[in-house]
UniProtKB/TrEMBL annotation:
This is NR LBD domain-containing protein. It comes from the Eukaryota. It comes from Acrobeloides nanus. Keywords: Receptor, Transcription, Transcription regulation. InterPro entries: C.elegans_NHRs, NHR-like_dom_sf, Nucl_hrmn_rcpt_lig-bd. Pfam families: Hormone_recep. PROSITE patterns: NR_LBD (PS51843). Residues 1-130 form the NR LBD domain.
Length: 130
């Protein structure tokens, strides 16, 4: 889970509950030493995703919808039925994201621009950390 904007902290919350502060965070030097092994991956994730999220000033609804879109990612090894179900769910969340953006931004060109910027974030989630 990304902790890109929480209580004035810059960093990433890992699934085990650990928090890894980003270099620009004052607590960077106090981080757990065991996280140093993963630092290059965390740094890559932060630059590709978190910094862009901060620049876009995503609201909570956009954040949740992007998370749902990431979860419903089609994988080639899925059965045809599963692929169709995932594809439909993902498209539903993409449509909801666009509807949400249109309620915030009445100018059609600006809402399309914001939508494209948010969807470009998805490329950063496909990075392999193996």
């Amino acid at each position: 889970m990304l902790c890109y904007k929480s209580y004035g902290k810059l960093g990433i919350c890992l699934t085990n509950g650990a928090y890894h502060p980003y270099i620009e965070d004052a607590r960077f030097l106090e981080r757990e030493e065991s996280l140093n092994v993963h630092f290059s991956h965390i740094e890559d994730l932060f630059v590709k995703i978190v910094k862009q999220m901060l620049e876009l000033e995503m609201d909570f609804t956009e954040f949740l919808l992007i998370k749902a879109i990431v979860v419903f990612h089609e994988e080639p090894e899925l059965s045809q039925i599963a692929f169709k179900i995932i594809f439909m769910a993902r498209n539903r969340y993409i449509k909801e994201l666009y509807k949400h953006i249109k309620t915030k931004e009445k100018d059609a060109s600006k809402s399309l621009e914001r939508m494209s910027k948010l969807l470009m974030l998805l490329a950063g989630f496909s990075v392999s950390f193996i």
